[in-house]
Design a protein that fits this description.
This protein is mainly β. Helices cover 15% and strands 39% of the residues. It starts with 11 loop residues before the first strand and ends with a helix.
Amino acid sequence: MLDDCSELINKKLGNYTIRQLIRETQMSAVYYGTEAFTNHQVAVKVLFPPIRPGSKEYKKISPALSA
């Protein structure tokens, strides 16, 4: 998982340049970006890697999983 979702801002991700964080959840982040060739405005969703049971991150979200 990203330590800070803002670390992708102004970076290239494939054909897209990440401009601004729109929303972050426990499993993903959605960014406003631009497509390199057409300069179209896009939304880019980045999925975080799976969380292993027993890890620090798993323990943090496990109460929400059992609700």
